[in-house]
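Deviation from plan, reported transparently: S-adenosylmethionine complex.
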Amino acid sequence: MDQSTGEAAESCHISVMPSEIVHWIQECDPRVIVDGTYGGGGHSRLLLDKLPAGEGHVIGLDRDPAVSLRVESESHDPRLDVFLGSYEQAPKALAAMELKSADAFVLDLGLSSDQLADRDRGFSFTTDGPLDLRFDPENGVPASQWLANHKEVDIANAIYQFGEERFSRRIARAIVLRGKERKPVRTVNDLVEICRRCVPRSKNHDIHPATRTFQALRIAVNDELEILTRTLADAPNWIAGGGRIAVISFHSLEDRIVKNAFRDDDRWNILTKKPLRPSDAEVAANPRSRSAKLRVAERVADTA
Ligand SMILES: C[S@@+](CC[C@H](N)C(=O)[O-])C[C@H]1O[C@@H](n2cnc3c(N)ncnc32)[C@H](O)[C@@H]1O
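Because the crystal trials were delayed, the predicted structure below was used instead.
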């Protein structure tokens, strides 16, 4: 939101692997596409452009109310409908459009540059602000509250499991100690300061000491991995035979879930044996894309 005008600002997000998404989705000649992580709408717009003129439909979903506000304030293609909600609700969104199935489903996981730039959200550990980390600030509890509600062992386990942070126990101890000293962790800087003290600098200083802890808390607060697992297990029930799913993930925990979900359900025909990576040119132009991995699968047609 632009505080001076009260208007929703334009998205500053640059879509990741845009030509790859268009290529793999367009190949199945879809009419109904679900973009489960609408964000700045970049992938949706590209896919709308590839639908036959005046035909087809793109249904966008995003958990972030700021996304819905932005979409409402923009003029957009009448073939696009954006719903506020988790991508897990895709079947409900389809039903609201009186549709039973989709031909394509796109997920571009993680957070957008718009969210990263919003200092009230707490996603960027280089800018101080409230430690919130929710995709949907109107539901659930902010990360500061999540820390206050959990025991040291649970905090340590979450930081270890979701952040793969070796110094999780030290960090959890320092967080809980601050609570006992009546100085609970409330802000981004509170947590960054703890991480700086507890995590030795990486060898080539290429990773900030707070990176893994912030990733872990974001995953925990938003229940990201559970939602992804449940959604991928359900997706073959509402993606039409011959339809496709394309998922861009940004860390190994997500990628493992996608890989296993495709491998373990024989209704998927895996189209990318190995995950696809952004080109060097894309990484140079958009460094945020550097850890992206894209996996694509096709829904096998049901035999009668
Ligand atoms: C990387 S951005 C997507 C960018 C988009 N593909 C584009 O090209 O502009 C990820 C978006 O997914 C949203 N998100 C995260 N988890 C979600 C969930 N479970 N359901 C719906 N949206 C989610 C975030 O709020 C964020 O806006």
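Residues 13, 15, 36-37, 39-43, 61-64, 67, 86-87, 108, 110-112, 135, 227 surround S-adenosylmethionine (CB under 6 Å). We consider this an acceptable substitute for the interim report.
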